[in-house]
């Protein structure tokens, strides 16, 4: 495993670990998810450059577009949650209380 692959895998695992540990605020969870998406973007970009396969060259751009959609949806949920509940604590949210 090259140092680049190790760094990208460590970054992704750090995002998963941060998301599982820092579950108090919605902002911290969204930042961890965004870090995971950026690590995936870098992984797919380096793999597509190394493989020289024309069928996967558009994959990083599609992942970046999905990441932007995910970030905008997350921010919309953050604004809606802070308006209705007054804060962004995740323990206040319940799926049963819509």
UniProtKB/TrEMBL annotation:
One GO molecular-function entry: oxidoreductase activity, acting on NAD(P)H
Record protein name field: NADH-ubiquinone oxidoreductase chain 4L
Matches recorded under InterPro entries: NADH_UbQ_OxRdtase_chain4L/K (IPR001133), NUOK/Mnh_C1-like (IPR039428)
Transmembrane segments annotated in the record for this chain: 26-49, 61-80
Main location: mitochondrion
Keywords: Electron transport, Membrane, Mitochondrion, Mitochondrion inner membrane, NAD, Respiratory chain, Translocase, Transmembrane, Transmembrane helix, Transport, Ubiquinone
Catalytic reaction annotation: a ubiquinone + NADH + 5 H(+)(in) = a ubiquinol + NAD(+) + 4 H(+)(out)
EC number, UniProt record: 7.1.1.2
């Amino acid at each position: 495993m090259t140092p680049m692959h190790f760094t990208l895998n460590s970054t992704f695992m750090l995002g998963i670990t941060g998301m599982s540990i820092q579950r108090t605020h919605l902002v911290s969870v969204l930042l961890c998810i965004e870090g995971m998406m950026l690590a995936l973007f870098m992984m797919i970009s380096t793999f597509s450059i190394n493989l020289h396969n024309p069928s996967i060259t558009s994959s990083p751009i599609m992942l970046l577009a999905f990441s932007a959609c995910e970030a905008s949806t997350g921010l919309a949920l953050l604004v809606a949650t802070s308006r209705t509940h007054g804060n962004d604590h995740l323990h206040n949210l319940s799926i049963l209380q819509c």
